[in-house]
Amino acid sequence: MSQKVLLNATAINIILHRLACQLIENHKDFSNTVLIGLQPRGKYLANRLAEMLKTEYKIKNLQLGQLDITFYRDDFRRGDKIHEANTTAIDFIVEDKNVVFIDDVLYTGRSIRAALTAIQSFGRPNEIELLTLIDRRFSRHLPIQPNYRGRQVDAINKEKVIVSWKENDGEDVVYLVNS
Amino acid sequence: MSELSVNHLLGIKYLQEKDIQLIFETADHFKEVINRPIKKVPSLRDITIANLFFENSTRTKLSFELAEKRLSADVINFSAAQSSVKKGETLIDTVNNILSMKVDMVVMRHPNPGACVFLSKHVKANIINAGDGAHEHPTQALLDSYSIRERLGDVSGKNVVIVGDILHSRVALSNIYALKLQGANVMVCGPKTLLPKYINQLGVKVETNLRKALEWCDVANMLRVQNERMAISYFPSTREYTQQYGVNKALLDSLEKEITIMHPGPINRGVEITSDVADSKQAIILDQVQNGVAVRMAVIYLLASKIKQ
User: Fold this and answer.
1) ipTM computed for the complex
2) Partner of B225 at 20 to 30 A CA spacing, among A29, A171, B42, B142?
3) Which fold has domain A9-76+84-157?
4) What is B138-288's CATH number?
């Protein structure tokens, strides 16, 4: 097994600032926008961006939630692995809001498909955008593309992209792992 | 994620402590789901579930059906009153006929103890016991423990008394197994005639004085007197039973602490519990009903995830 560092802490920090600025460019003061981190790994990126928007860009009244897609997956009973459900925390109305889904890696697009179904249980958003830190090119199974991307990566199928966060894994770093 | 150690839910007796924790953690997520504007997830779209009720039921049947529908399963219902059972068909034949219509899972209530265990050995489907005679009613015990956990934070170390007709109660037996497995202290309380002869072997305390039992406990689970299962008289009169084993406001107010009151339903108001107690804040009877749907969704989801395609 070999691993290569795709992004180090400094590079991640620069990208997070850029993504935050791009969000502000499109959503102004976020008065009609909600950020939703996709469980399990997207919540770290969502929390980090929300924190940055609040403290460094002085966005007030930012609404942040977490959405779990386990019960909406299209591979229930299809693999050996049983998927673990996580907490969903959306304590605001999404009806007519601009929703931004936030996830760490966009790969096949299937979890985003599940998230698009899941969010409908909470209402009908005005529009839904997608922000990902890593966009794995040429690996999509569905016609889904991000609106905001941190870094585009060409990785072959047996390679894995692993995003570590300081608050959960000890350091901010993105690895490309070849197993 | 770990999975259940069993392929059927036949009784709490067959479960391990970690199974119960897994069911509760999954039920937490479903409880959030059933409080959304759209209370439904598509997980079990390709699963068909048969609800076979060979004995009357209102809330258990509704609760199971609602849980199945919230998971998007297809549901077929069967009750013995309008069926070929009356024409002399055996249980295995009835069920196999239903299964040949491509049913994946069976929820069954039956008046005979062990009917679900018997069925699980003879048919190919996941079986959930919704009550078999005076034996077990596992989902009721799970939702009772889940409600205790929700109200008091934890089940372990809590003192729980089960009051009333222990002899004829499947709820009592399943509750004893479930509570002991989670480390609670369990007491049963009722007239001697309604306590099983070998109840001590289950490792529970026995008390015939309701007041002493209530002073000891954190939670009191009040059972219904099952007149339909009593061929003979077990106590002189309903009035005498109520005076000795019914809870009322005055009795609860005279205790030094506020205990939680549970009831699996249906309530005989004025017999085992008075109306003012049943409708008070101390009672979590309606929470139990709501939690029933979430817990049953969790059980069905976890068992369905073991059906391979």
Assistant:
1) 0.82
2) B142
3) Rossmann fold (3.40.50)
4) 3.40.50.1370
